[in-house]
Amino acid sequence: MAALGWLTPRRRSATARSVLAGEASAEAARKSSQETTEVSDQEPEFPVLGDEHAAAFFDLDNTVMQGAALFHFGRGLYKRKFFETRELAKFAWQQAWFRLAGVEDPEHMQEARDSALSIVQGHRVAELQSIGEEIYDEYMAERIWPGTRALAQAHLDAGQKVWLVTAAPVEIATVIARRLGLTGALGTVAESVDGVYTGKLVGEPLHGPAKAEAVRALAAAEGLDLSRCAAYSDSHNDIPMLSLVGHPYAINPDTKLRKHARQLDWRLRDYRTGRKAAKVGIPAAAGVGAVAGGTAAAIALHRRRR
User: Is 157 considered catalytic here?
Assistant: First the structure.
């Protein structure tokens, strides 16, 4: 009995400590729940599930895809003997410059557009659309950034429409959008008569401010609230488009866009080297794609250096 009497206080003391531990745990859980709610209030889930008045707009060159779509298209046309080696060399130089500099040079882009227009003049629109499908498989599919693709998919999964917005020909942009499962594309429109290219543009290339106007017009036609929409680009030339929406993202940004984005607390993401750029509120759905994109880029960079 003495032994049992000696044990009894231990049991009571242990019970008291258990109660204390339980109360402390419950209080910690309650505080954690409150803090989670507060964080959730500050950073609401994005993209918003089922928001039919929101959409996402993605630049193409160096945002969704490495390099410029127009240059890859040029390579495909050369393979099909649309033009001579001298013109291919020009395309190759412009593409190399774009890949190394990571920014669009207006003079290079203008030369590329002029070359492309002269090359397709007299060809049927249907012919170029069919060839565009082949060129996508040959040169573009492997250059899609997985991280950016994941961001686009997050919007699609939320029930939102996703549009490419690019200076590339609308026929090529439409092929890429369809292959990626996106809603559609806004691109530069080349004039055609009776289904044949004339070698002229309708208006001007969809570049810089023209992109913003295209997004504004589409939003009006689709009944979108731009303050609830998102836009993604790598170039400071697209600041007018990014400034239109409530959720601007700088993806693989050039120096000027990176500086501008940091000043305005825009979201940043860089898939080019495997490092994570400073960011604010990146959607969780992009996590797997971001890792995949960064890893792929790092491996490719390592192989080139070897």
Answer: no
